[in-house]
# Entry
Amino acid sequence: MPELPEVETIARGLRSTLTGRRITAIAHLRKSIYSGPAPHIENARINAVERAGKYLVVTLHAGKNWQLMIHLGMTGQVLIVAADAERARHTHAVFILDDTREIHFRDPRRFGRIALAAAPAQGFAPSLGIAEGAEPLEVTQDAFVALFHGRSAPIKSALLNQALLRGVGNIYADEALFRAGIHPRARKISKPRLLRLRDAVRAVLNAAIAAGGSSISDYVDSGGNPGSFHFQHRVYARTGEPCEVCGTPIRRIVLSGRSSHFCPACQAR
# Structure
């Protein structure tokens, strides 16, 4: 599933290309992935493109301000293509721009979704279903400690809780815990170790954004280009391979139904 770095990469690409353009028509929108009022947003001006956790939010103006939310699910892609580009299989939405280019939303597994809502005065419309957790790149030291200190759940499970911290998923939780030297099953972590984890989360996410995200499945940016951070993974999906720090084989366990990868020496409980 695309996580914060992948969605941020897509948001930046869309923002630099689409801000100020208009959506002149919706050529296709599969009803099963859409929620909200009838999408009468033809000739809507694109005022902003934001990321909130793992969600893309496009602010449109068509008589009034609207928020168009795109969640990529497991395999979603948002692509800017030429008007004569072939519509790939599993393309579930097509928005035509005023310069004749098109925005295609493609999602083979159909876990993604699109929603439209009137924009509130502040924040995001509740009906869009955007997770309310803190943003990892903005959360302060005190706020991060308050979120995770004293919790009885394993720290890996807590990191994946989007109501606490939104945008971090399986890949970057594993990578951050490794860099912080914390076992994924650790509980009730001390304040100094939580501060180290906060720094690790931020460092990993920023490095992944700089590399354009991790392309380990269907992920590509808005121009169709893969990211390269998967070449920098130190533990994720490296079961049995030697730790780059100590040489100990990387282990895999399952926590709350999700795979967790770690070094049993560098991340001893």
User: Anything to note?
Assistant: Residues 191-210 form the longest helix (20 residues). The mean pLDDT is 95. Residues 64 and 102 are 23 Å apart (CA to CA).
